[in-house]
């Protein structure tokens, strides 16, 4: 969990939460070491995360990434449900395509998709890495389920990308 003041993964200031663990092993993944089972991860309960976020005052929102957040569906569901009670914006990065998430026919997945502002989907493809803002590779799609971040993403050009 990290307080981002530079707008790396959405409008700042915002909290970034990385869910530990992903089994895809995409070549070039920046989280590949963190995703190994034995790599030490800092375990936080959802309650603790929500308390930290609520106590942090003037933040714009939260970005959830990983790892693969949807592999910890109960925790993800609880976190999104709690945050949706606030005014905070919610962005999720997932290695699953939106179509794959829909095909799961899982009620918690459906509810999460109905409550977040943005999903950036798809795994990282090294061959398709062209430094696009807010996407690791061009196969990934930014789905905007609400208008909250429409202007933000529209205004971001390649030269604005910080990585
Ligand atoms: S799906 Fe994402 S987190 Fe998982 S290995 Fe691939 S790039 Fe890394």
Protein model, in words:
By secondary structure, the protein is α/β, with parallel strands linked by helices. It has one domain (2-153): Rossmann fold, CATH 3.40.50. It is built from 5 helices and 6 strands, in the order E-E-H-E-H-E-H-H-E-E-H. It has helices at residues 46-55, 73-84, 98-103, 107-115, 150-155, and strands at residues 2-4, 14-19, 61-66, 89-94, 118-121, 141-144. The protein has a 6-stranded mixed beta sheet, covered by helices on one side. Helix 1 links the parallel strand 2 and strand 3 (61-66). Helix 1 runs parallel beside helix 2 and helix 2 (73-84) runs parallel beside helix 4 (107-115). The model has no long low-confidence stretch (mean pLDDT 89). Bound molecules: iron/sulfur cluster. The site of iron/sulfur cluster has 13 residues, from loops.
């Amino acid at each position: 969990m990290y307080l981002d003041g530079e707008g790396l993964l959405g409008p700042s200031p915002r909290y970034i939460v990385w869910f530990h663990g992903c089994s895809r092993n995409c070549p070039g993944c920046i989280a590949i070491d963190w995703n190994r089972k034995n790599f030490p991860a800092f375990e936080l309960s959802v309650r603790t995360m929500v308390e930290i976020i609520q106590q942090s005052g003037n933040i714009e929102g939260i970005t959830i990434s990983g790892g693969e957040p949807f592999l910890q569906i109960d925790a993800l569901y609880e976190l999104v449900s709690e945050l949706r009670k606030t005014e905070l914006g919610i962005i999720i990065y997932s290695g699953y395509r939106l179509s794959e998430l829909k095909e799961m026919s899982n009620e918690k997945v459906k509810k999460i998709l109905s409550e977040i502002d943005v999903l950036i989907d798809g795994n990282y493809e090294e061959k398709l890495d062209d430094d696009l803002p807010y996407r690791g590779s061009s196969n990934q799609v930014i789905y905007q389920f609400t208008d909250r971040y429409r202007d933000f993403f529209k205004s971001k050009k390649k030269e604005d990308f910080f990585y």
